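Hello,

Our lab assistant flagged a job as stuck in the queue for most of the afternoon. It eventually completed. Since we weren't sure the result was trustworthy after the delay, we are filing this so someone can double-check. Below is the sequence as submitted and the structure that was eventually returned. Let us know if re-running is recommended.
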Amino acid sequence: MAKLKEDKVNDLLGELDTNMRSTENQLSCYKCMSLLVEPVILSPCTHVVCKACVRDNGDKCCPQCSREFKKVLGPS
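-- returned structure --
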């Protein structure tokens, strides 16, 4: 019985780890690969990057899809 409980706990911990990694990936900037800092949305592609990463990107292309963006939506 103890072995079954241990296996169940290990399965749950594995699922939790997978979910945390997935969430962290969704909260990461594609350019700097760190957690988003002052996230902004590029329009029209709607990809999210750090505000500082957009400033460093002088060519007006999304670092994720390489499409030209027209607007940066988010905190000024």
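-- support follow-up --
The delay was a queue issue, not a problem with the job. The result is valid. The radius of gyration is 18 Å. The helical segments are 2-26, 51-56.
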